[in-house]
Amino acid sequence: MNRLGTLVFAGVAIAAGAYWLTLPSQGNLPANPLVGSAEAQQAEIDTSSIVEMVQGAEDAPVEVIEYASYTCPHCAAFHEGPYKKLKADFIDTGKVRFIYREVYFDRYGLWASMVARCAGPEKFFGISDLIYKGQAEWSRAGGPAEIAEELRKIGRLAGIENDKLEACLGDATKAQTLVAWYQEHATRDDINSTPSFMINGKKVENQAYDGFKALIEAELGN
Known about the structure:
By secondary structure, this protein is α+β, with helices and mostly antiparallel strands. It has a single domain (7-220), classed as Glutaredoxin, CATH 3.40.30.10. The protein has ten helices and seven strands. It is globular. The two termini are 32 Å apart. It comes from Ruegeria pomeroyi.
């Protein structure tokens, strides 16, 4: 999926939160993705509060970063297939430290991210699996209200209590910070499609698992 850059304005209202969200679609990434006024576009956003979602040994010799969107079908296919092999062969064996970074093409991907992060790092990857498995259903549930409700159902299925779920989805400050965080990394690593990967700092496009395995093994010196 190749959709980063041009500004698209989408009105967002979840729970008590209501704000205007600016998200990229194609071309160059804008400086600040969430705006409520002209001044907000120029404001610096502190993204240090955003937690990196990581699997694998801290001292693993190979670092793999995935950039993915919850609304990207190719990302769902990766998580249903190659990711499971990557986890078994390299992450669980201490050879790869895996970092997952969300890309926000639209408000629905952002909402999904806020649900995935709602229960903390311990449940993040499990909830992400549920979101990807159900992508074809929740992403086509209808309008914004229907899609938001389907994402709530996934959160409840993962054991998140209603009050906490609503607080997560209604956190406009967190939404703003997440989008700024995404753009910082996407700009720095020149990410313009999903899924995209960084293997020990080198950008890698999506490919069959055998290709990933060969690249990782080369980094391991095999």
